[in-house]
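writing this on my phone so excuse typos. first protein, seq and then structure
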Amino acid sequence: MAPDSSPEKEGVQDIDAPALEGMFTKELSTAFAALGCFNLAIFGATGAGKSTLVNAVFGRDVADTGVGEPVTRGVDYHRRDDGFLGIFDSEGFETGSAGDQILEGLRDVVEARRTSAIDQQIHAAWYVVRWSDRRFEDAQAAFVRRLAELGLPVIVVLTQVPSKDGQAHPHAVELSNFITGFGLPIRAGGAPVLTNALADDFTHAPAFGLDRLLDATYEVVPEAAQAALTAAQQLDMERKKKAVKAVINQAVTVASGIGAVPIPFTDAALLVPNQVTMIARISAAYGLPPQRSRTMAVAGSLILTGGATMAGRYVVTNLLKFIPGGAVAGSAISATVAASLTRAVGIAWAKVCEYALTLPEDQQQAFWSSGAVLEKFRSALSAG
């Protein structure tokens, strides 16, 4: 007997919700773990603006939100609670014996970690100088050289630099040129990166140079640590979107293989495991907090199952517009249909994640644990 192809009958086959939630939880854990950790060493005198700089690039102060431990004299390691970002941070030092002690201890740390897993190594170092100090001494230059001798890719960063119409304060440029004259083995073309992490309402100085600092950091970070850096950084959404696009494209390829032998719409649940993996990897690529994996798993299972929410049925019956011609002969899922459905689900979930990132930290938990996720997903599907 021919299958009933009416919209009322075309739905994702009901899946045991607890089992699917467990599948989501496992895939989210795998996706987060696969990112690893980007480790940044940051040095500079007290008051140079290190914490403010980290906050501006990564969204929050790691020292306030992560677990810290001393790794050598004068240097602590803080790993942010989401696991994507680690900071090796000195409390602030003046040049001289304190700097020498830090370097000697750091040498042992670098050597011990050089053959460790990539997420245990130091991937980049920022040496931070407050431009308004208007000085850079021989001892500071020696410290930077010794950092480079340890094998660390060093970027010198001038902080709190005022700018106007995209041009840095001329005195800051003068200091930058002075530092460049030392011929230090630093990245970003051998010159400091000029930044201002926070806009100043009093002086009307805007945030400045952070994108260039992020670009310079990407240039020195090994490829194996770039996924973690992309998840951790909060400046460049386009980099996150590029990573997500790759995830979706891979899932679409898998879905095409599943649909190579056409299956009835009633067997659309065959596509779900691939879509679970895709959604988990998208969530990780955006750097969503893994401690919310439980609520994200519940949200994802609501979207991909049938049952009381009818979310699965909604996906199938409302995504025909993504299929050439708007209809499918015999109500079968072919490779084209499977790819189209999977791509649409991935794009819609990406929009949900992007929206979540715009919410204040204290509102994200409520969003993931409410029906707003499903409504946002449906809205994203309708928008195409």
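second protein below, same order as before
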Amino acid sequence: MQEAQKIVGERVRDHRVRVGMTQQGLADLVGTSKSRLCEIECGKHNLSLKQLGKLADGLGISLEELFEGL
């Protein structure tokens, strides 16, 4: 499970950078702290599907894109 968490976190970071959003900007958009978002992007924090859905919406991607191939 931790490997999947790490991959999903990397995908969140990659998409965030691709759309030119800061960690603080995405954290504010989904209602979390910048430090929590950093933990998510590093794969150190597990999220519910609802929280992941908010992140995906904030990044303008589908939830499926975060899990593709896992």
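The chain has a mean pLDDT of 90. thats all i got for now
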